[in-house]
Specification:
Layout (H helix, E strand, L loop, with lengths): L2 E3 L2 E4 L10 E6 L5 H8 L21 H4 L3 E4 L11 H11 L4 H14 L15 H13 L5 E5 L7 H16 L4 E6 L2 H7 L2 E6 L2 E7 H6 L3 E7 L3 H11 L3 E4 L4 E6 L6 H9 L4 E7 L3 H27 L1
């Protein structure tokens, strides 16, 4: 799929599948995240390629598409003069729900996002966290199977971010919603998402289950013993560890190549006559994945630009 705005290419040849559960759509500002969300909502027509959403007929009109999905935009788009209940009820009616059902759903979803006691207050007087919650309620009120959330925790303090992320996680875990979380805040994705898609300059540069992406090729372990770290280190190198570093508090960081079993860690400790107090596998952080993918994409793009410049010269 490619998306253009005039001569500007916002998204270029993106080919990705968003699985069920909570999916993080990661990228720096301007990477193409919002353009993809708008295309999924039928608000932007791709220049080439196509999008399909489970349960929605292929080629469905934008209004039909939006009956099946919920959208929480990055910026405030709340109607002035309305209270929380009126705001959510109005959104429900716009999706085609009858007035009585829209009213009932508005009350229910406002209690779910923890705004039940504030639902009759004017939205203009809401705090930043409350405004984000009422936007989430608007996205949820027609009970969509898929939710697109664009930078939902922007501008929130730590408590507000924690509360909103807990609501987002429960939507996927307890209610079976597919949630696409578009953000540049890596800890948010690390906390609630099972899969990620990383965008850079309008292209997908990494995608897959978070557990697999963070595993890496080499396996790293933090091994804590009660004594004789040097002896354990030497034994591990003999057993096939590719690297052993001595850390503080009696710990060793051990890197094992593929094919070397974890049992060598216990065997080395036993050979040195010491006890193992703790063994923890260390995974690559999401920040490492993100920065590595972005840097690789930038290097490849710069190489292509240089080659093109050389050819034209």
């Amino acid at each position: 799929m490619t998306i253009r705005y005039g001569t500007h290419v916002a998204v270029s040849d993106v080919d990705a599948e968003l699985p069920s559960g909570c999916v993080g759509l990661l990228g720096r500002n301007g990477a193409g995240k919002t353009s993809i969300l708008k295309a999924l909502l039928g608000l932007v027509r791709p220049s080439s390629g196509e999008l399909t959403i489970a349960g929605v007929p292929r080629g469905a009109h934008g209004t039909e598409l939006r009956r099946h999905v919920g959208y929480m935009p990055e910026r405030d788009c709340l109607v002035p003069g309305l209270n929380g209940y009126e705001t959510v009820r109005h959104a429900a009616e716009l999706t085609g729900l009858p007035a009585r059902i829209a009213a009932r759903r508005a009350h229910e979803v406002l209690w779910y996002v923890e705004l039940g006691e504030q639902r009759y207050r004017p939205v203009a007087g809401y705090s930043a966290g409350m405004r984000q919650k009422v936007k989430l309620a608007v996205a949820l009120v027609h009970d969509p199977a898929i939710l697109f959330l664009d930078e939902p925790t922007n501008g929130l303090d730590p408590d507000g971010r924690r509360d909103l992320l807990a609501l987002i996680a429960s939507l996927a875990r307890e209610f079976g919603k597919t949630v696409v979380l578009s953000t540049h805040i890596l800890p948010d994705v690390d906390r609630v998402c099972s899969d990620v898609v990383v965008l850079e300059r309008g292209r997908v540069v990494a995608a897959g289950p978070l557990a697999e992406l963070t595993r890496g090729i080499a396996r790293r372990f933090r091994l804590t013993v009660d004594a004789q770290r040097a002896a354990v280190r030497n034994a591990l190198l003999v057993e096939g560890a590719s690297e052993v570093l001595e850390l503080q508090d009696d710990a060793l960081r051990v890197t094992l190549p593929e094919g070397v079993p974890v049992a060598v860690l216990f065997r080395a400790a036993a050979g040195a006559g010491v006890a193992v107090h703790a063994l923890v596998e260390e995974r690559r952080s999401l920040a490492e994945i993100f920065l590595g993918a972005v840097d690789s994409a930038a290097t490849a793009s710069d190489g292509l630009d240089a080659a093109a410049g050389g050819a034209s010269a």
